UniProtKB/TrEMBL annotation:
Example GO molecular function: DNA binding
DNA-binding region: 29-48
Pfam families attached to this UniProt entry: TetR_N (PF00440)
Domain HTH tetR-type: 7-66
Organism: Nonomuraea montanisoli
SUPFAM superfamilies per UniProt: Homeodomain-like, Tetracyclin repressor-like, C-terminal domain
UniProt KW keywords: DNA-binding, Transcription, Transcription regulation
Top-level taxon of the source organism: Bacteria
Name of this protein: TetR/AcrR family transcriptional regulator
Length: 193
């Protein structure tokens, strides 16, 4: 006989923080987090040292999942680097069209965490660097003349599509970003780096 164990306080806090910081923002109160997780205040401090530690751990978990989303999305598009890069924008369009879409968790975190030394900023910075590397690697496979610069441009288009998707519903920002991405990808091969 298999016994199923209920999630412990740590997992319940992570789940509640993941949901509430995305739907209500990073300023969600500790009391709301504790109530949603059905845990005592002591659990928050024992497992995370406080709300900031919980936020950092949620960002670590979600960035790992989102980095994997980029890998899977590109892998699912086949071997052609151009198709793999454009698949990112097709995937963003699908995400933006979901009813619970609230924008980019990491942009929201960076804007809400006013203290530049907050450890959450290091997590979001590492995430963007990872995504940049993934894009840059595909651009190198494409023999793009300026892969690092083009990856920066594509990441800007990703951020813009996610922000517009949250603030201007119904405008299809991922399709516009995809069209602009095609121009970045099609930069003539003879252009000097």
């Amino acid at each position: 006989m298999t016994t199923r164990t209920a999630p412990g306080p740590r997992e319940r806090l992570l789940d509640a923080a993941r949901r509430l910081t995305y739907t209500q923002g990073m300023a969600v109160g500790v009391d709301a987090l504790l109530k949603a997780a059905n845990v005592a205040r002591r659990s928050l401090y024992e497992h995370f040292g406080g709300k900031d530690g919980l936020i950092v751990e949620v960002l670590r978990l979600t960035t790992a999942e989102d980095e994997e989303w980029y890998r899977l999305t590109m892998r699912g598009a086949g071997d052609d680097p151009r198709a793999r890069l454009l698949a990112v924008f097709d995937g963003l369009a699908e995400a933006i069209d979901t009813p619970d879409f609230r924008g980019c968790r990491y942009l929201a975190a960076d804007l809400a965490l006013a203290d530049p030394a907050h450890p959450g900023h290091a997590v979001t910075r590492e995430y963007r660097e990872c995504v940049h590397r993934l894009l840059e690697d595909e651009l190198r496979r494409l023999a793009h003349p300026r892969p690092e610069h083009a990856a920066t441009q594509l990441l800007l288009l990703v951020d813009g599509a996610l922000a517009a998707g949250a603030t201007r519903p119904g405008t299809d920002p991922a399709a516009s970003a995809r069209e602009l991405a095609e121009h970045v990808l099609d930069l003539p091969r003879h252009v000097a780096a």
